[in-house]
Queue: 2 jobs
Job 1
Amino acid sequence: MSDYPGYEETIFSKIISGEIPSTLLHQDDLVTAFRDINPAMPTHVLIVPNKWIPTIDHVETEDEPALGRMITVARKIARDEGIAEDGYRLIINCKEHGHQEVMHIHMHLLGGDRVGPMLIRKK
Ligand code: 5GP
């Protein structure tokens, strides 16, 4: 897409369209949620906007409904998965320093055990 030079749509667009299979947990007009292919925790779900937005740095005001929906869908899935009472972590990585590997905004929902400290401290 010429709007975002250097970025291209990713495999997540094909998961959203159903072209590539995934374990789909939720889909509506704004967002899609599916299990991470390589789970880091007993529950590891990715919640993505249906619209391709490469990174949080590309978000516009018009994207606020989708970003808000990502949170309410995370809450619903956490309850469905039975992890809401003990708690969980939501993570959105951004670009290289944030360790983002797939250039389509995605929120990680991680739980089912203690996630541990937020960061590995370098100092
Ligand atoms: P990031 O490091 O970009 O924040 O996280 C990317 C996540 O996408 C990783 O946790 C990775 O396991 C997951 N992932 C990459 N490719 C696929 C795929 O084809 N299907 C699914 N379900 N998850 C994927």
Job 2
Amino acid sequence: MHAVNYQFTYEIYDSISELTEEDAWLLEEARQVTEQAYAPYSNFYVGAVAKLANGEIIAGSNQENASFPVGLCAERVVLASVASLFPKIPIETMAISYQSGTVESNHPISPCGICRQSLQEYEGRVRAPIRLILGGQSGKVYIIPKASWLLPLSFTGEELGI
Ligand code: THU
């Protein structure tokens, strides 16, 4: 037997003002796109904005449904749009923000498990990392260089012969 240690490095900034101009702009866009979310059931409005390698900007927000499992997270709305509109183009950076009607929106949130799986698949499809910028409407900001680092020991298409 031997034990394996998994670790990765990410950056923590005290506020959006410490980011580069482009990163700050992307996070600000993600903050604003929370306004487009349809989240009457959770009152948790998420916005995601992707900057593609071809310079395109694609935004999305969570879209809930009275049949709860039908709802889509903001991240997967963006991934589906990118894959449909610009197939094979890498996503360089995705900024993710939120605002809530019930809890403070002053710290970063991290993508849910299903979105981590989807982000990883997109990285694999285009063979390029997706850099994540995570932040609330205020407060600290996390930058994670590669989304799939959030999903160690993951199941991938390789297991299916892809
Ligand atoms: N949600 C997202 O859109 N992205 C995340 O990273 C976490 C959760 C949505 C799903 C649901 O509509 C609401 O937030 C509460 O879970």
